[in-house]
């Protein structure tokens, strides 16, 4: 996770939020702003983002800065939609979280193939069944596909140790 610190006035923060972080950003605190979040996946150069020279940017508070979490954007732009037949690192990351929380193993047993419940990067019938179980548990549409809503549920409810997700960017 990368973060940037912004020490300037509210209009400048608004500019950065609306033009750099897109509409997924939350409003930051008025004083001593520090912006961070998963949606920021690339380093950012504020001097390019702000049409100001550095002499115009002044700290607005001498109070200690506190980090403010900016929204995590669970969208098609930030995460891949995965489905049966997909392969690769994104599928491995998904399978690891499913395995760590027992969904993958339970699906393997239910499908009478416990040895097939492995983190192999192949989105097959066991991974699909595990995703369906997750979706059913959290009352989201049961599709067997990992769309933005499923990523959000997986990350917020079944990823307490913050295992990496396949963020785009």
UniProtKB/TrEMBL annotation:
Coiled coil: none annotated. Residues 88-154 form the Peptidoglycan binding-like domain. Pfam families: PG_binding_1. It comes from the Bacteria. InterPro entries: Peptidoglycan-bd-like, PGBD-like_sf, PGBDSf. This is Peptidoglycan-binding protein. It comes from Trichocoleus desertorum GB2-A4.
């Amino acid at each position: 996770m990368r973060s940037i610190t912004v020490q300037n006035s509210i209009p400048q923060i608004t500019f950065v939020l609306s033009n750099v972080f897109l509409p997924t950003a939350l409003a930051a605190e008025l004083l001593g702003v520090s912006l961070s979040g998963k949606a920021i996946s690339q380093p950012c150069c504020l001097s390019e983002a702000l049409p100001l020279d550095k002499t115009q940017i002044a700290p607005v508070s001498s109070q200690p800065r506190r980090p403010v979490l900016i929204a995590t954007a669970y969208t098609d732009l930030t995460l891949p939609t995965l489905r049966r037949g997909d392969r690769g690192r994104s599928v491995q990351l998904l399978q690891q979280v499913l395995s760590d929380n027992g969904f993958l193993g339970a699906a393997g047993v239910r499908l009478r193939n416990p040895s097939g419940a492995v983190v192999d990067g192949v989105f097959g019938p066991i991974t699909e069944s595990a995703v369906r179980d997750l979706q059913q548990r959290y009352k989201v549409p049961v599709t067997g596909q990992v769309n933005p809503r499923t990523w959000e549920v997986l990350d917020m409810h079944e990823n307490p140790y913050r295992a990496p997700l396949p963020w785009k960017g």
